Input
Amino acid sequence: MATKSKSKASHWLSIVALAIGMLSLMYCYSFIQQLLEQGLFHSNRTIVQLTRILKGGA
Output
């Protein structure tokens, strides 16, 4: 079952919203990539440190 847009304004607003979303992802891409790269390293180091503390060998 297909639905039709009753307003051309809503169609254009949807396109504008998608464009804003794409621009924000493009702007934040380097920050997200850096967070993922450093986050995995830091989380691994944190888990190792917590394991040492829980074992009593800090």
Notes: The radius of gyration is 23 Å. The mean pLDDT is 80.
